[in-house]
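User: Could you check the structure of this?
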Amino acid sequence: MEGKYEKAQNGDYDEAFLRRFAAQIGTALREREDDKDKQSSNIPSIEESVEDLYRSLVFDEPSIDHISNLPVVASALARQLLSSSSTTSSYALSNRLLNGVVYLCNQNTTLVVAKSENENESNNHNNDTVVHSTIKTAMAKLAFSILIDIPLECCRGESPSSERNMNRIKNILGSYKGSSMQDKQNNVTNTKSSTSTIDDDSSHSNNIHNEDKKRSMSNFMKNNDDNVNSSSSSNNKEDDNNNNAVEEIQQQKQQSIVEEVWAIESDPSDYDFGEDNPADVIMSAGADTILEENDWLDPKVLSRPDLSLTLQQTRDSIGTLLQLASYTLLEPIFYLPQKDTSRYASQLTQLVLTLLKPRRKDRSTSSSLSESSLLDSSVDYAILYPLWILRDAAAYHTNSTSKTIRQSCTTNYGQIYLEILQTLLAIDQAYLQDIGSSATSIKATSDPDLDLCVASIVGLSALSAWCSMQKKFTQSTVDAIVDSMNDLSHVVERAERTYKKNLPNTLIPILEILSGIYYDHVDSNISSTSSVPQTLLNSGFLRQILALLTLDGEASTRDLLGFHHALWGLCQSFPKIVGKYVFRYPGSSQIIRSYATNLGSSSPQNCVQSILWNIYGWYQCTQSSLASGGMNTVLKKIGSSTSDGKKLLNTSRLTEDECSEVCSKAWSQLCKLVIQALEASSTIGSDDAGAEKVIQEWGRLLVLSRISSIATHFKSLIDPSLLDDISIVISSQSKQIIIDKTDELKSREDGKANDDKNDDDKERRKPSRRQRIISQAHKVLKEYKLFFLGTVVGTSKTD
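Assistant: Sure, the predicted structure tokens are below.
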């Protein structure tokens, strides 16, 4: 053989050898092609894979790792779920399918891949991460189709009273049945809360977002105390019947638990765990199909529509789907490229606008709206969930501190969310124009059927919550508010008739983000040359804000403190336009003087607000006097009576001397409160919480006094020598703390019996609340002294 090979190399070819060699090569090539054809023939088609995926998802603990080309198969299944045709080749929704998809989304969301110690383990973990990432994204896309696309497909179109439309919806929902609407309404009743209220003026910006998810649309901007009281009184009358019912329920529940445990131990497949019985699904499809299939997990069987589905059951199903939708469940799709996320954002926007579409009562027929409409008040508990998904996506990607997360997402969800809020705010005005009415007409303000649209209520409350969530200044939010200023003015004017009590607290975060001056801090990024002040005037929004400032006495002043402070922030940020306009408003002097009349109330908040408002009043009086050539004269002495016997407090013209005097008194009163708080902290049983609040308000005044527009006026109107009295008290309290601490340590060392007390001693050596109060007061005092000296502001490191 070697000789023949050498001959072949030398040019002497053996014909027989070449033929045999060529035949062997041809055989090998044919075998390889046959193997390829055999392998390709074993790859299932897309239709087969869709059925396999559906069947895999309906198990209690689904596993879909074996599905090849999962993203394509999941997309194909999603398309078939949205198909309204009744052919046997399409698939529809079922309870088991939804449970499987939600199970995998939740499972993969909480998956954490540990760091490996060697390279091989690292490669394996990387492969696992890729697999799980693929599953996570595919299931999130499928979940979006089920929880968002299907409700949108069901809600749009002609009236559900149409038989053709109801058949289309039944084909889409398949055998799926949602939870009972009565249960959902009970949950909403148990978690009801009022809208946008502030428990404390210093923490109002946190409450709106925390309570947003608890409220239902039925009490979105109304108080429901009467309903709660009436329900509680009726419950007291039926205590005996309720006790008997509770005992029966507990007995049945205990018996059910025993049966469930017994069934699990014997044969889990024989026990009914409360899910839909597939036999019922087969029965609903017709008697002819009962014997057709015995496989209850067959996708074709589970996809058969329930022909007996009523309109209320349809609402229950759609409401349950909406309630299951959340940003956490769908999070993977929000990291996809912009060409993909734009489609999801568009679908969410369409669903929000569809659910919040104005509902106009039809008086031409005797039947109520709820009998023919798919979206009525019974689904109000779930209509905000799609909007919350966009809100959570915008908040997470906007406020995230992770640079990697911000760079990995190319879609500006904050801008998308603000755009939909702008649309919601404009719906009421567009709705009135469509029906030929106007916000200022008698019909629009007197007809109860023309109440403010729910969509605009949601838009205003959601915008308020978004502003309170902002951790830092964002120009996009300010621009969105400016662009919607006309609609904001319209909504406030329309809401004043019914929701006047709730409006001030709702508007506080919006006004704060426009001015950049919050309750206890100032945002230096706000530009004083922006278009905010002129837009406030031109749109009439500032006029609507001032119309809400009608005072009804001391209680109203206290309740509106946060709203007053937000208005003061606008006046200080834009003194030449907003500040001058507010000063000329007839009721502005009432705001300034209302705090002056309550200086003896021992409220540090009242003192701070009185100082701030009178500094503003002094500056505006000075500017007004200069503009009029110094002819700003006092009409009558404050407190004197007019001819009709009424006090002149709220009718006389505000003067520089009055503002200067009140400002000085308020500063003196605040310093006295600080001294009293420091001295009281050394007594046993003292109100440490009250003392801390006084020190916090004292420090808050310093933060706001550093605003460039009032810093010079603040220094000239108050007496800084009063700080020396506070300094003496702080020094004496600090010395006493050192003496007490030394005596305490000495007594413990003398009375030590063993080393086991060392841990207790360390615990006792921690700073007490009194020590923290004195330390905080010392820090604020040093910053005040540096402020009046005109040097760099002190920090915690200065001490």
